[in-house]
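To the team - adenosine-5'-triphosphate complex, inputs and output below.
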Amino acid sequence: MAHMLIVDDERSICELLEISFRKEGHKVEVASSGEAAKRLLASRIFDIVVSDICMPDMDGVELLRYSKEVSPASIFILITGVPTIDTAVSAVNFGADRYVIKGDRLLDELRPAVQQVAERLALKKEAGYLRRELRRLTGLDHMIGTSPKMRAIFELIQNIAPQPSRVLITGESGTGKELVARAIHENSARAKSPFITINCGAFPETLLESELFGYVKGAFTGANENRNGLFHAAHGGTLFMDEIGNMSVTMQVKLYRVLQEGKVRAIGSTEESDVDVRIIAATNKDLAKEIAEGRFREDLYYRLSVIPIHLPPLRERREDIPLLAREFLGRFAKSMTKKIDGIEPEAMRRLEVYDWPGNVRELENTIERAVALESGNRISVDALPERIQKHFQESVPHANHNGNHTCLPQEGLSLEEHIQGLERSYLLAALERSGGVRTQAATLLKMSYRSFRHYAKKYGV
Ligand SMILES: Nc1ncnc2c1ncn2[C@@H]1O[C@H](COP(=O)(O)OP(=O)(O)OP(=O)(O)O)[C@@H](O)[C@H]1O
Ligand SMILES: [Mg+2]
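Output:
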């Protein structure tokens, strides 16, 4: 419903409009003079202003000008008891949205305009709601995913982002660790402050130390001036320490001390300074193993992993593959200005079956390459790299070898998992044979369409 302001020095008109529009569910405020209206307009935002033209203290057209200045999005309707060409013309010139003559039909004339505004507001609200809902269901900022695992991660990010706690992000290479770190920063109160990344694996020990903590002039040869480190640069914001698992043990000790005390000392300095920095660390190593083998300090681990986030590899959330593939396709087609608007079902099935050791990054690169190679208007199997095609041929059984060679591996196998793998690959094979037509695939597998859908959903096919 709309928030309205009625302005008229004639009490009966104010009352009539106030009562009628309130009854219809709108929020109505009233001003009996131009000055009173100005004060209200300055203090809150109205969706609709309905104002008389002739008032003792102010001309309605002047109020219109004021309203367009302070609140240009408000709809302004002028009403008058004495219509003249002059006022009508200046009303229009100053941007009145409507001009209505007082009389028996005043309400009937106003109602549609108010209704229209109210509907537009409702739509706007709905659109905002839908956008938020879509974001909640499909991802966070630039992160995409509808798998339950990723949705749980998006929810976790939203919950923990506003807090100051440290976060440790683990996951294989290319699973989106840096993206998660950025999403946490962007959804926190620190969003307007710096987000600084340092790759701890890329620096030799002494260089890493001076990068992080800074140095004073003369601290070592080559230190010709004072220099602040990244902890200072990130003050008030977030420091993303990538590949923390590659940090030397000596540096780990130094970092631990900083985290413990919340103070940083530049190399060669005797003074310590306070820093307010949120640390987000990431690694693709298995830190438990690193700790067990003496390469990572357990005390630092506990300091860093107040909130651990583990990103599952892409092969454990295959449902996300089509969504990600289409998103990347859209991006690369646009940047390479190519008219490719889809992925052929056979190509998509190969993408879904592949194991993606390089995870989302590998998928991204695969689509980039495919977009560059493809000459048709959809990504075809031929545009995919050989390793992906080969994997498909090896993993999806083709129904023509009907030998009964049951072979139990030496080390045994999980029957349940094996059967699930078989189910999944037959499902894919049937889809392949039927060219993606699900009802036909169901017939091939001698099952009802209903059970086919059940399996398809179960395996995210
Ligand atoms: N959920 C996702 N939605 C969209 N893009 C993603 C998603 N996850 C990862 N990406 C993209 O995949 C690429 C790799 O992500 P990112 O650099 O965050 O991975 P990483 O885990 O930090 O990898 P590494 O361990 O190799 O540094 C980036 O281009 C990123 O934009
Ligand atoms: Mg990374």
